Amino acid sequence: MRVPAFLSEALEQFEPVIGLEVHAQLKTRSKLFSTAANQYDPGQPNQFISAYCLGLPGVLPVVNAKAVELAVRAGLALNCQIRTTSIWSRKQYFYPDLPKGYQISQYDEPVCEHGHLDIEATKGPKKVRILRIHMEEDAGKSIHVDGSPYSLVDYNRAGVPLIEIVSEPDLRSAADTVEYLKQLRAILRAIDACDGNMEEGSFRCDANVSIRPIGETKLGTRCEIKNVNSFRFVEQAIEYEILRQAQLIAKGDVVVQETRLFDSARKETRSMRSKEEAHDYRYFPDPDLPPLVLDEAWVDDIRAHLPELPEATKARWRALGVPEEHVLTFVEDQGLARFFDAAIRGHAKHAVGIAQLIKGELLRERKSDVQAVDVDALGIRPEDLAELVELRESDKISSTQQKKLFTAMLQKGAPLATLLEEEGQQVDDPSLLKPIVDRVVEANPEVVAKLKSGNLSVMGFFVGQVMKATQGKAKPALVRRLIEEAIASSP
Ligand code: ADP
Ligand code: MG
After folding, report:
1. Exposure winner among 25, 37, 108, 454, fewest CB in 10 A?
2. For residue 128, how far is its CA from the centre of ligand 1 (angstroms)?
3. Is 306 in the pocket of ligand 1 (CB under 6 A)?
4. How far is the CA of 430 from the centre of ligand 2 (A)?
5. 205 CA to middle of ligand 1, Å?
6. 238 CA from centroid of ligand 1 (Å)
7. Is the shortest distance between the CB of 219 and ligand 1 below 6 Å?
8. d(Cα 405, Cα 422) in Å, to the nearest integer?
9. Residue 265 has pLDDT above 80, yes or no
10. What is the pTM (predicted TM-score) of this model?
């Protein structure tokens, strides 16, 4: 995006203010108020539905306890206060993907409130306050087919449990917003509450953006950018929106409060509708559901069993010397993090080597940052990976062999022990290697002469010959030593 000179001057006088509403689908087996499966499969529309999801007359909601547990877990991980009594409310609006005509959500008494998330912002550590986390059911999905006079609706998503995490307007740049989202996603993954897949929509956000003159304490008028489905797009959408608002104000116009859509092809936001107000939804407590009352002991038990959170995990890995780049990659991917932890169990001193092997060999094939690696499907046992690094670091195998064995483990899915047997151990017995070395030296007197006259580069030729004769199994350092000895004693 090119910024005209008059604008970049204007921009310097404004401070961007961003607040986020993040929707995260909870990893339950069934939906929030019915036993229909909570399953994502766009190839099988309307397969995971019940009478409830379709809003048929007479259906009644039954709260999924697992969903409540995951919401509470998220609240605790985000330093929230948990309400022991919260209220389910109806939010009414008309849309084909909402057959009941209302969504069950939480309004003025949400299950979690007053939390915060500490992030590493561009200008240093920053506390982003979390206003509230409420539970609600997802809507279905409208499918608009290009050129077709009608649209389709898939109700598989209708009734999937969501938490909406609402931040205070504490963020000050697009980059910090992305950092917040990444940390938030890593936490939700670590506590196994959400799989965080932005492309599939299980983790999505609306960004509220406004600007104000630097030094001003009153908030400016905000625009809300809807459902942007990748970190890159979030960044682009916010950057664009800041510029657009600065341009308006620089021209003497005003920002109109509205809902805008991000067009990822044109990298711009455009007006979608004027912003609705809470009273438009006619919220009222759902008469089919009593207040959600949580037992304090139950909440304490969830608190006591919270898994390690990403910040603690990162600190633990850093203490083992794992390079920052690897720390950040692993912590964002739950499967990878578990795999790495399993591999370093009892092998802490090889943590760096293991990290490098995973990053260098395992992730080479990975297509994008967003895509999680299904390490379970790889068929590599973490202890085998550790063993492979140990073999290399104690010089029992060469780095070429390490790579070869790694590839074989990936392709055959065989245990390392079996492969090592097939492969034959590295030959590091001097009595086996000496005759071969002598033969190679005797057969090449002219190369010996070159070496003796100081041309050390021909050393590689000898090592190569011995490796060839042993099908690569000789230990290179030993071969070198034996060659030096043989040459020193040759006439
Ligand atoms: P609504 O549903 O009307 O969007 P919410 O209270 O659910 O209202 O969400 C408001 C979100 O917008 C919060 O994340 C809040 O931090 C953010 N926000 C509110 N005012 C501003 C503003 N002036 N500039 C930027 N963000 C704002
Ligand atoms: Mg909103």
Report:
1. 454
2. 14
3. no
4. 73
5. 12
6. 14
7. yes
8. 10
9. yes
10. 0.80
* pLDDT tens digits for range 298-329: 999 999 999 999 999 999 999 999 999 999 88
**Cβ-Cβ contacts under 8 Å for 55 (sequence gap 6 or more):** 98, 99, 100, 101
Query: Given this model, what pLDDT does residue 295 score?
Result: 97
Substitution site in 176, 208, 223, 276 for ligand 1 pocket (most atoms within 8 Å of beta carbon): 208
Q: Where are the domains of the chain?
A: 5-293, 308-423, 430-489
**Residue with the nearest Cα to atom 4 of ligand 1?**
224
Closest ligand to Cα 227 = 2
* Ligand 1 atom with least separation from CA of 220: 23
Phi, psi of 371 (to 5 degrees): -70, 125
Q: Is the pLDDT of residue 369 over 50?
A: no
pLDDT of the residue at 233: 94
CATH class, 430-489 region: mainly alpha
Q: From CA 395, how far away is CA 397, in angstroms rounded?
A: 5
Q: Which of ligand 1's atoms lies nearest the C-alpha of 169? A: 16
The answer to whether residues 297 and 85 touch, using CB atoms and an 8 Å cutoff, is no
Q: Give the up-direction half-sphere exposure of residue 147: CA atoms within 13 A in the CB hemisphere.
A: 0
* Tens digit of each residue's pLDDT (9 = 90 or more) over 380-401: 888 888 988 988 888 777 788 8
358, pLDDT greater than 70: yes
Asked if residues 27 and 221 have their Cβ atoms less than 8 Å apart, the reply is no
Burial of 199 (0-12, 13-18, 19+ CB in 10 A): exposed
50-99 pLDDT per residue, tens: 999 999 999 999 999 999 999 999 999 999 999 999 999 999 999 999 99
Q: Which two tokens stand for residue 59?
A: 């259906």
The residue among 240, 233, 179 whose CA lies nearest residue 211 is 240
Ligand 1 contact via 20 beta carbon (within 6 Å): yes
The reply to whether ligand 1 has any atom less than 6 angstroms from the CB of 106 is: no
Q: Which residue is it, tokens 């090119």?
A: 2
Token pair listed for 490: 């040759």
